[in-house]
Amino acid sequence: xxxxxxxxxxxxxxxxxxxxxxxxxxxxxxxxxxxxxxxxxxxxxxxxxxxxxxxxxxxxxxxxxxxxxxxxxxxxxxxxxxxxxxxxxxxxxxxxxxxxxxxxxxxxxxx
Amino acid sequence: xxxxxxxxxxxxxxxxxxxxxxxxxxxxxxxxxxxxxxxxxxxxxxxxxxxxxxxxxxxxxxxxxxxxxxxxxxxxxxxxxxxxxxxxxxxxxxxxxxxxxxxxxxxxxxxxxxx
Lengths: 111, 115
Fold this sequence. Notes:
The structure holds two protein chains of two kinds.
Chain A: E1 3-5, E2 10-14, E3 19-21, E4 24-26, E5 32-38, E6 45-49, E7 60-61, E8 72-74, E9 83-90, E10 100-101, E11 105-110
Parallel strand pairs in A: 2-11
Antiparallel strand pairs in A: 1-4, 3-8, 5-6, 5-9, 7-8, 9-10, 9-11
Chain B: E1 4-7, E2 10-13, E3 19-25, E4 31-37, E5 43-51, E6 54-57, E7 64-66, E8 76-78, E9 87-94, E10 105-106, E11 110-114
Parallel strand pairs in B: 2-11
Antiparallel strand pairs in B: 1-3, 3-8, 4-5, 4-9, 5-6, 7-8, 9-10, 9-11
């Protein structure tokens, strides 16, 4: 079975500092990977996904199949980035609707 | 556009009571899922559906039933509530069909306490 690991439950950085949220996965096939974010008092929503290879709100994430990682990075953190971040995996297109989530990382960006 | 709507937002039950958590989506999505989130943990899949009339179990299905009579609705039934079912429940939907359509859209959640 697939597994997603987010090793940091809490991460705190100062405004303007770089931030990296780690995500490692175990899955023998080709995974579909996502980062979801939950801001205070808002519902969980997509931040970005690996197949899009785009930058959203200054965040990027690269799939590294050799290291089985999908770390989320931003060069200059902003206070509005403070939120809960979840890495999620879908084990192939036939498993749409069956996401496996990591335990989440709470990011706090201090002024 | 309402997206995914969950009701109720909060619920307190006594052990042994039954109830139904409602979930509706207005995006004509084929895939719908129920997750639970316990403190300090990620979301775990309870049940999911790939279309009307088709449901299957997820990682933690025991104590829960689902049905999918329409594309829009996917209710989750607690048969006999237990304190271990105290959690936050999220419903999600996705279009599916190809890799570009597997983004899940989430409801606001139902916070359930079982005493």
